[in-house]
């Protein structure tokens, strides 16, 4: 089994590919705006990483969204619904969680096929 680490750093890699699956976690870079804006920003990063690895949002299998304030769930869903590819919605769950940075409204974990 081969493991490819995309843009590895000391603490973590931007993504990892194993057995034809891409694993990545993305957070908003700016930490600015409401949950809708941060969701759109983070999903654009997901698009970028998947494209760099020869995939796209139509090949996402699973998404886990972590949010510190589930009262912002509807705002997140507005951006998600505008972004997700018609007919290609992945399995998804949203979890209330304290995040590493106080300005982040969400963190998104993605598993996608190459």
From TrEMBL:
Q: InterPro entries given for it? A: RidA_CS, RutC-like_sf, YjgF/YER057c/UK114, YoaB-like
Q: Which residues form a coiled coil?
A: none
What's a Pfam family in this record?
Answer: Ribonuc_L-PSP
Query: Would you say which domain of life the source belongs to?
Result: Bacteria
* Stored PANTHER family: PTHR47328, RUTC FAMILY PROTEIN YOAB
Q: Which family does it belong to?
A: Belongs to the RutC family.
Q: What is this protein called?
A: RidA family protein
* Source organism of the structure: Vogesella facilis
């Amino acid at each position: 089994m081969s493991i490819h680490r995309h843009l590895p750093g000391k603490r973590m890699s931007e993504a990892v590919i194993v057995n034809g699956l891409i694993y990545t976690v993305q957070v908003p870079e700016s930490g600015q705006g409401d949950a809708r804006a941060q969701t759109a920003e983070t999903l654009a990063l997901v698009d970028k990483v998947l494209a760099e690895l020869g995939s796209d949002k139509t090949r996402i299998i699973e998404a886990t969204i972590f949010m510190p304030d589930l009262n912002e769930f509807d705002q997140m869903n507005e951006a998600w619904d505008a972004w997700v590819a018609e007919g290609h919605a992945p399995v998804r769950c949203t979890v209330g969680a304290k995040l590493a940075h106080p300005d982040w409204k969400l963190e998104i974990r993605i598993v996608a096929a190459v």
